[in-house]
Amino acid sequence: MPGGAPLPDAAAYLAWLLGDTVEPTIHPTAELLHIHGLLSLQQARLTGSPAFEAHLASMRLEGAAWQLGALLLEGGIDFLPLKGWDVAFRLYDDPALRPMSDLDLWVGGEGDFARGLTLLLDRGYSRVSDGEYDVSLVDPTGQALIELHHGLDSRYRARLTWDELWGRSRPWLWNGLALRRMDPTDLWCYLAFHFGKHVGLQRRLMWLLDLHLLQRQSPVDPHAVVERAGRWRIQHALRAAAWELKRLGLDHPPLDLPSLPAPFRGAPWDVGLFGRWRQVAYHLWIADRLWDRLRYGWDQAT
Fold first, then answer.
1. Which pLDDT value is given to residue 278?
2. Of the four listed, 110, 275, 282, 298, which is most buried by Cβ atoms within 10 Å?
3. What's the pTM?
């Protein structure tokens, strides 16, 4: 099952969560729902509204996102909101239904990332850590974690380029801010890649619901998806996401991609030595080219 913890009969449960009148045969624990990001959706399904705490957390991050966006626009920095910041407002009637643990954004224009990072640090944001393709910050209130991306994945793996995705991005007037966000087909590819490349506890059913709702709202061109997946070298991750969507009865474009290999049908969440090696094998398979991963490992070591 997707996620670090198995969820029996997930297809029937998700169908009920999305409005099916048939009662599910399972009742996941609050902990399991939290892991998969489904707690707010279940609360709304049962009572008609997310819990007060979910609204409060959503409002806090929305305020932090507004401050961040306004500051970058003032500084003339181009950026694209990623993941929750985009989909919570694009796909859900109430953003509190789609939990976010942080704010992700991509600042990929030439020179913009360095200028944007300097601007934020000068305005009271604190640098927490540096990743392979992002920098983690905390906002001046200390309540919002921000992932400032200068790329979407290792340069030795996926090849999603800023100029291409920014060029196809669409205007988005959000809370009075004139932003831009990804084209729906680009977003579907990116979200599927983001799901497919993760294993274990990092993999969440919430991400599959994002893909399902996006396909319902803006059906993507399957030929464009396959073409971009090949050019960006993310075919394997998309195969994993598409297989999970189909297995769970969720909407997905009819992609002309090979079937998912049997060893990877289901998230490699196993523990112990076998589980660890299965996760390593999955990552190498997702990487498309083992040679590129070896080059990356060599660069990291030296």
1. 72
2. 282
3. 0.90
Sign of CA dihedral 81, 267, 201, 28: positive
User: Residue 138 and residue 23: Cα distance in Å, rounded?
Assistant: 42
DSSP H or E segment with residue 135:
strand 134-138
Residues 6+ apart with CB under 8 A from 9: 24, 25, 26
Which residues of the chain are under the pLDDT cut of 70?
A: 1-8, 156, 200-201, 266-276, 288-302
Distance, CA of 203 to CA of 245 (rounded, Å): 13
Backbone φ and ψ of 180, nearest 5°: -130, 150
Distance from CA of residue 19 to its chain's centroid? 23
Matching CATH number, 52-181, of 3.40.630.40, 3.30.70.260, 1.10.10.10, 3.30.460.40:
3.30.460.40
CB atoms within 10 A of CB 259: 10
Q: Name the helix (H) or strand (E) containing 171.
A: strand 170-174
Query: Can you read off the two tokens belonging to residue 210?
Result: 């994002």
Closest CA to 125 of 142, 104, 140, 144: 140
- Nearest CA to 98 out of 213, 180, 12 is that of 213
Domain residue spans of the chain: 52-181, 184-290
* Per-residue model confidence (pLDDT) at position 200: 65
Under DSSP, is residue 29 helix (H, G, I), strand (E, B) or coil? coil
Contact 94, 135 (CB under 8 A): no
